[in-house]
Design brief:
289 residues; six-stranded mixed sheet; globular
Length: 289
């Protein structure tokens, strides 16, 4: 079984860039964080995720921006990227180093206060511990879905999230326990009705490509593609919307009923109505609709 990287100690009194390069060398994807411990904003090309974003670290989406865009998804272990001109400019403004725990096969249980720490000591196995400003980070081997506010003062940071690097910590790193996995499980969001006007086209509502059954089959296949997604749901939803719009977005055959069916499929996988609207809008923008 391949062991995930261990966050190792870096020398004292070094720059954020030096820390980042040291972490990246051990297999931990890093990114610069600006004041407020937040990622740098997207570049003009990527503003509003018009580029489609980067759904995950293993299969990057359509965005190929060389800058520090898309927050956690910008995390990299490539030293050539870390010292590239756009990144150097960001490091010069950075106040600390962030890292993508899930990209390193890790999960951070972020404990915000003394009460949360007391709960963890009674409910979770001991593991690598890093002091924070107000509490502690407990780091485990294994990656899961990130989720905030799983209980008072407790967040889970793993896939599609970033954590602030605050040092190597102390103690031996343990395997991710079932107790943490259970906290990350989120009940499916209830499907909420969506009102969204389908793109206006030159047609009269009938699909000009083939017979009307062609459109129905396409929508059904799109629903199936979304509901069967076992990972990278955000990316699957966006790409499916893009495919539907590229085929039917200009002919006037799509109706609000079709769009609602696609949104309902996405919401059944845990997507919010806002995420659906953003993905639909981004797909339309990319196609010039």
């Amino acid at each position: 079984m391949t062991q995930p990287p261990v966050i190792r100690r870096v020398p004292d009194a070094v720059s954020e860039l030096d820390v980042a390069l040291s972490l990246a060398a051990s297999g931990v994807p890093v990114l610069p964080l600006r004041r407020g411990k937040v990622p740098f904003g997207n570049c003009r090309t990527c503003t509003g995720n018009v580029c489609g974003g980067r759904p995950n670290m293993k299969t990057p989406g359509p965005c190929r921006c060389p800058g520090v865009c898309h927050a956690w998804a910008a995390g990299t272990t490539d030293p050539a990227v870390i010292v590239s001109p756009p990144w150097i400019a960001a490091w010069q403004q950075a106040v600390c180093v962030g890292y993508h725990p899930g990209g390193a096969g890790l999960t951070v249980v972020d404990l915000d206060d003394a009460d949360a720490i007391a709960w963890a000591r009674g409910a979770l196995p001991a593991t690598r511990t890093v002091p924070t400003t107000r509490g502690e980070h407990w780091i485990y081997r294994g990656a899961i879905t990130s989720r905030n506010a799983v209980r008072p003062g407790v967040d889970i940071k793993s896939t599609m999230a970033y954590a602030r690097y605050l040092g190597p910590g102390t103690g031996d790193m343990a395997d991710l326990p079932d107790a943490v996995r259970a906290l990350a499980v989120k009940a499916p969001s209830p499907v909420r009705p969506v009102t969204l006007v389908a793109p206006a086209g030159a047609g009269d509502g009938a699909c000009p490509h083939r017979m009307p059954a062609y459109l129905e089959r396409g929508i059904a296949m799109a629903e199936q593609r979304i509901t069967e997604a076992s990972s990278a749901v955000h990316a699957t939803v966006y790409r499916t919307f893009l495919a539907v719009l590229s085929r039917h977005g200009r002919c006037g055959c799509l109706t609000d009923t079709h769009v609602s069916r696609l949104f309902a499929a996405a919401q059944s996988k845990g997507e919010t109505a806002r995420h659906c609207t953003d993905a639909w809008t981004n797909a339309r923008t990319r196609l010039g609709l």
